[in-house]
Amino acid sequence: MVCPRCGSHDVHIATVSDSQTTEKVKGFGCIKACIGWLLFSLPGILCGLCGMGKRKRTTTVYSKVVNVCKNCGYRF
Ligand SMILES: [Zn+2]
User: Fold this and answer.
1) How far is CA 5 from CA 37, 40, 64, 65, in A?
2) DSSP letters along 11-57, please?
3) pLDDT, tens digit, for every residue of 20-29?
4) Domain-by-domain residue ranges, the chain?
């Protein structure tokens, strides 16, 4: 293993953990509102609108293996 930056052979393998947060915004539940309208008229539409703009946050933690150069600190 050779460092691509400085050409040193003093490279060790390290495991680093990383996390990524993704946010999903739920759109307007149009079908839900339509079904609600058919079944319950106005209260149903309000129920359908309740699902609007809901945010779902998901955090994914993953670990990856990187090669770290002891000479210059370069990770690859
Ligand atoms: Zn290096």
Assistant:
1) 64, 67, 20, 18
2) EEEEEEEEEEEEEEE----HHHHHHHHHHHSHHHHHHHHHTTT-EEE
3) 898 887 665 6
4) 11-69
Q: In terms of pLDDT, which residue wins out, 40 or 67?
A: 67
* Residues with CB in 5 Å of ion ligand 1: 3, 5-6, 8, 69, 71-72, 74
CA of 69 to the centre of ligand 1 (A): 5
End-to-end alpha carbon distance in the chain: 11
Q: How far is the CA of 6 from the centre of ligand 1 (A)?
A: 4
* Span from the CA of 20 to the centroid of ligand 1 (angstroms): 27
pLDDT band for position 74 (cuts 50, 70, 90): very high
Q: How confident is the model at residue 52 (pLDDT cuts 50, 70, 90)?
A: low
